[in-house]
Amino acid sequence: MMRELGIDPVPIDVGGVLQRSVATLYSHLVTRPTGRAVRLAIETQLAEISRPALSLIDLSEVTVLDFSCADEVVAKLLLRFLEEDRPGDAYFVLRGLGDQHRGPITTVLEHHNLLAVVQLDGASFELIGTRTEIEESTWEILEEAGHVRADHVVEMFPGEAEWLALAELVERRVVLRHADPDGYYALSALVRDLPAPSSDT
After folding, report:
1. Can you list the domains of the chain with their CATH numbers?
2. Mean pLDDT of the chain
3. b/e per residue, 49-73, with b = 16+ CB within 10 A?
């Protein structure tokens, strides 16, 4: 599906980026300068991709994550790619979140009014961050369908509130709107068949 849509998968092992960016043997993201260095390294990698990208941000090798680094690496990364002058056309799915990651990441997402898609164990996905009930339910409908053609939107989302929620999810970049073939895509539908991320990213 990603090939058909012209989207490149870009797996990013945050632990590996940390070790290369700040020359540390430890997978601890605990200072804002460290988080900033990791974020800038990720932005540089994504800026080199000429086509739209789906970036799989893997935190499984990060053993410690404080709030300042969650803010730098996750929140500010998402904010940067929401801007009109973003360095590339990238969407994000977070992977490998443990208990030590979820609290800080959820807090900074809510602080910035951001929303993110998280891949759980296996093929399950969820939203974290700030969203309304109608955004949650609309995302769940699309999540179950995987893909809704543009000419089926009214059938799948019969109310104006659902249309507006779907448009908002696209604006917040947790749903992909693609023109050819025309339709709306759950980010999970793009990653379910991809191999697990490797440490060579």
Report:
1. 1-130 (3.30.750), 131-191 (1.10.10)
2. 90
3. beebbbbbbbbbbbeebbbbbbbbb
